[in-house]
Amino acid sequence: MKRVVVIGSGFAGLWAALGAARRVDELAVAAEVEITVLSPKPFHDIRVRNYEADLSECRIPLADVLDPVGVRHVSADVVDIDVEARTLTTSTGQSFGYDRLVLAAGSSVCKPDLPGLREFGFDVDTYDGAMRLQQHLRRLAEGPPSGAAATVVVVGAGLTGIEAASELPTRLRELGLAPRVVLVDHNRLVGSDMGASARPVIEKALADNGIEVRTGVSVTAVSHEWVSLSSGEQLGAATLVWCAGMRANVLTEQLPVARDRWGRVAVDDYLRVIGVPLVFAAGDVAAARMDDEHVSVMSCQHGRPMGRYAGYNVISELFSEPLLALRIPWYVTVLDLGPAGAVYTEGWDRVVVTQGAQAKATKQTINTRRIYPPFSGSREDLLAAAAPELQARP
């Protein structure tokens, strides 16, 4: 029995497992291959929606999508990869051998060692983190009214920070609080990666949503009732949401290769880790060429196709079949701006194509349908969805 192990069950990990199951089915080698997914929890989380208020549709039981295609899931936190022995070790001491490995363990938000941040800070990086924030805001709404209770500081004016900040005024009002939301970033401009075309749209949306912006400053300390900034300003705030910076899962450090500044390992066009035999990588842990000039970004837009192709290729390599090269000739960004709608851009220079209600409709289609696996429980539907093909632009 040949053993294929996928570490991670996010956008890349889930689709790598489904892609591998599809290729096994195509080659009619089910009796010869065991596919196992290792991830800490038995869920596929729709992580990109964690900034929203309603997370009821954001956690999918892995059994619903893996069992029908014959993929095993083990709830385990992998802590060690031995590429020489081809074994994995979990935090509980379990050991798993592999003939081929797909590392798709994702990324996490970077929290610096600031006074009070770990004790009093929140994030929307994970489903559990987003739920903690939700419960915290409800407790504040039930407590004595104060300016600090109704004030939220969001740190990081990148995509996640802008989406979280844009959603919060409505969330606070619905809880009966008079909202004050302050968006803080050490960069001089909000949405610094969004380019000159989209930035005016973002700035106007933030203003229309009543969000205060502090740029060119950093957070220096946090407590349960205030946030201190490098400018010397102290904001009375009972809530800080950290959305600044991402880093690949630390398991990439187990591989004997160089990593980029986000901790990602380089992969070839077939998603094989360059310099490590028998190991593939997909999603936020991998830096893959999307074209001759650009590498992948940490997003489900790239993570999902990377997973599908990695799954196809890991089985193909195992049985000495031809591999498929992944290149994605287009790039889009759809940024939710809360009540102000959204902004949709195309190209790596992020030229605005639509904004407002029209872009919002596209964002909702993506968030509620496009990035989900089939819910039918049908083996045929799941394998069909795992085809190594590129979706059209949304």
Please, could you describe this protein's structure?
With 394 residues, the protein is an alpha/beta fold. The chain has two domains: 2-109 and 246-329, FAD/NAD(P)-binding domain; 117-242, FAD/NAD(P)-binding domain (3-Layer(bba) Sandwich). The protein contains nine helices and 25 strands. A five-stranded parallel beta sheet has the order 5-2-1-9-21. Strand 7 and strand 8 (95-97) form a beta hairpin. The radius of gyration is 22 Å and the shape is globular.
List strands and helices in order, with pairings.
Elements: E1 2-7, H1 11-27, E2 33-39, E3 43-45, E4 59-61, H2 62-66, E5 72-75, E6 78-82, E7 87-90, E8 95-97, E9 100-103, E10 107-109, H3 117-120, E11 121-122, H4 127-142, E12 151-155, H5 159-174, E13 180-185, H6 195-208, E14 212-215, E15 219-222, E16 226-229, E17 234-236, E18 239-242, E19 246-248, E20 265-266, E21 279-281, E22 286-287, H7 300-318, E23 332-336, E24 342-346, E25 351-355, H8 356-370, H9 379-385
Parallel strand pairs: 1-2, 1-9, 2-5, 9-21, 11-18, 12-13, 12-18, 13-14, 20-22
Antiparallel strand pairs: 3-4, 6-7, 7-8, 10-19, 15-16, 16-17, 23-24, 24-25
Helix pairs in contact: 1-7, 1-9
CATH architecture tag of the largest domain:
3-Layer(bba) Sandwich
Spatial order of strands in the largest sheet: 5-2-1-9-21
The CATH class of the largest domain turns out to be: Alpha Beta
Number of helices: 9
CATH topology of the largest domain: FAD/NAD(P)-binding domain
Oligomer: single chain
Q: Assess the beta-strand content as a share of residues.
A: 25-35%
Could you report the average pLDDT, rounded to the nearest whole number? 97
CATH superfamily of the largest domain: FAD/NAD(P)-binding domain
Low-confidence segments, given as residue ranges, are: none
User: How many distinct folded domains?
Assistant: 2
Largest sheet: 5 strands, parallel
3D shape: globular
Keywords: FAD, Flavoprotein, Oxidoreductase
Domain FAD/NAD(P)-binding: 3-301
Cofactor: FAD
Protein name: NADH dehydrogenase
